[in-house]
Structure formats: C-alpha cells, structure tokens
Design goal:
74% of the residues lie in helices and 1% in strands. By secondary structure, the protein is an all-alpha fold. Helix 4 packs across helix 13, helix 13 packs across helix 14 and helix 13 packs parallel to helix 15.
C-alpha cells in the first residue's frame, strides 16, 4: 500500500496525469488533437526541445544553467548545409563534423564555468551570442543568401525525420526515446551520474571524496552541446533547410521543461524521466492551444507563466521561513478545530 502511495506522490506520476488531462481537455475542444498522425506532425518541431532538455538536466543538477543550446542548434544547422553544399562533403560526414563542433562549443563554455568560477548564466549567455555570431559567419561562407538558407538536401538525409514507424511515429521521435533511455542509464545507473548529483549537492564534499568536479561539470555542458547539435541535425532534416537562426526561440521551453520536470534550479536533484515528460507536456500544451485558435506568436506566454509558477512553488516549498509560517498556521488550525 505504501508503495502505491509513493508511486502516486511521485512528480513523474503527476506529469503523466497532466498529459492525460491535456488530452482530455484539448481533445474535447478540438477532436483533431486526438489524431495521432496530426499530433506527431505537430510535435515534430518540438522534438529538438525534448532532446536538449534531457541533457540540460545534467547541467542543472550540478547547479548550473545552459541558455546557449538554441544558438548551437543554429550553428549546427548552417554548418551541415555549408559543409555539404559549399565544401562538397558527404552529407553524413558533414553531420558528424557538426556534432563534434557542437560538443566542442559545449565543452568550451563548460571549461570556463568549471575552471574560472564565473556564473554559468554569464558564461552561457556569452556563449549564446558567440555561437549565434559564428553561425552568421559560417552562413556568409555559403553561395546562398543567408535569408534563403540552404535546401535540396539528399533524400537519405531527409529520411532522418521523414521515415515513420507504423505509418505514424516519426523517426526523430524514436531517436528521442532512445536518447531518453541512454540518458537515464547514464544519469541514474552509473558512477558518472552519481558524481553529477554529488557535485550539485555539495561540490566541496565531492572534491574531498576524490571526484574531479571540474571535469564532471565541464562534461555536462559538453553533453548539452552535443544534444543541441543532434537536435540541429534532426531539425534541419525535418525542415529541409539549413539556417543560422534555427533554435533561437528554444531557450524558454528548454528551461521550462527541465524545471517543470522536477530538477531543482539550485542543483542536487532532478531526473531525466521528469524532464522528458515535462517537455512532452509543454509540447502538447503548445499544440493544443495552437489547434484551438491561439496564434503561434503568443505560445510563449503560457510557457513563461508555467515557468514562473513552477519556480515560485518550488521556492515556496524549500524556503525555511515560508515552511515555518505554513506549519505554524496549520498547528493553529488544528488547535482551533479541536
């Protein structure tokens, strides 16, 4: 009985219920929401956010934050296009080189966070501007105008997102599920994952126990950069166009998904499954609101409200003064009721 109670009190279970409520509400308002093929089609552009949120979770558990992932998505996209279209490389070689570049971008920011002690917000904000500028510089190397982008990719590359399992489930969603499994094992079933949690709980204690905390912190940013590059490749394959500004609007949904998924913005706690479910919940929210008439330019408003409310409730739950105040009022009610 206690196990069942604990299961229903888990945050992941609450997120599953939230998703079910979204299906009921939006499906009632607009039956098109319940069309699986249409739903996956709407989710396709949000899958990159889902993928990146998995590994930004690693970063935030260490007590950091990564707001540069969207810029790395754009840099990856335009690198794939330029290396294939203008440098004449095989499209998949171009993808591999772009993935390496994304991992290096993450590692560079992670190095400055880990070895200089500068606030992660400052470093990744600078990284966001740096990698956006690099993406524009790369786009200027192309014979195509920057605003046009690069298109006409080979069919084999487009198949990364156009292939559907069972006639409905897109390949990039399958890749997301595979990454959920891999990131879960890495974070929750390995010594490396335990080191990430220890760095977030108490970095000094982690160092005294023999953990190379700087290397661990730096590696989380490298994984985040790699995930952003994977997202960039898949988004380019899905849209069939490589542009430098792809992913520019992803920062808010990514951070919202990770925080809503139960990862503390102070570090030390969190999980991949929660982030994956929260990312899907945010994605379904955007799709549902869009199908019911909300303009796409306003879709960030409910996501922003969700982020503020989540952080506020988490702060209220962990603030000692507020908890003391609530417990005092609860005792007063109990005394008054008796």
């Amino acid at each position: 009985m206690n196990k069942v109670k604990k299961l229903f009190l888990r945050w992941e279970t609450i997120l599953v219920l939230v998703i079910l409520v979204e299906f009921v509400v939006f499906g009632t308002l607009n039956p098109k929401f319940l069309n699986i093929k249409r739903l996956f089609s709407g989710l396709n552009q949000f899958v990159p956010v889902c993928i990146i949120s998995l590994f930004v979770t690693f970063v935030m558990i260490t007590g950091g934050i990564d707001i540069q992932a969207g810029s790395i998505v754009g840099l990856t996209s335009i690198m794939v296009g330029v290396l294939w279209h203008d440098a004449g490389l095989n499209i998949f070689v171009a993808c591999v080189l772009s993935l390496v570049a994304g991992a290096l971008c993450g590692a560079l920011s992670g190095f400055f966070v880990a070895y200089t002690g500068v606030q992660p917000m400052v470093i990744t904000l600078g990284g966001s501007f740096l990698y956006s500028g690099m993406a524009l510089a790369v786009s200027n190397m192309s014979s195509n105008a920057a605003y046009q982008g690069i298109s006409d990719f080979p069919a084999a590359f487009r198949a990364l997102s156009k292939t559907e399992l069972f006639g409905a489930v897109p390949m990039q969603f399958v890749i997301f599920l595979v990454l959920v499994i891999l990131s879960y094992i890495l974070l929750h079933r390995t010594n490396y994952g335990r080191k990430i949690f220890l760095c977030g709980v108490n970095v000094n204690a982690a160092e005294f126990s023999g953990i190379n905390t700087r290397a661990v912190v730096m590696s989380t940013y490298m994984l985040s950069g790699l995930s952003a590059s994977i997202a960039g490749v898949l988004l380019t394959a899905y849209l069939g166009t490589a542009k430098a500004d792809m992913g520019a609007e992803y920062t808010l949904p990514i951070i919202t998904a990770v925080v809503l998924g139960g990862t503390s913005n102070l570090g030390g706690s969190g999980g991949v499954i929660g982030s994956a479910l929260a990312a899907l919940a945010v994605g379904f929210l955007r799709i549902g609101l869009s199908l019911n008439g909300l303009s796409t330019q306003y879709l960030d408003i409910p996501v922003g409200i969700l982020l503020v409310l989540t952080v506020s409730f988490r702060f209220a739950g962990t603030n000692p003064k507020l908890r003391k105040l609530f417990s005092r009022k609860r005792r007063q009610k109990m005394v008054g009721g008796s």
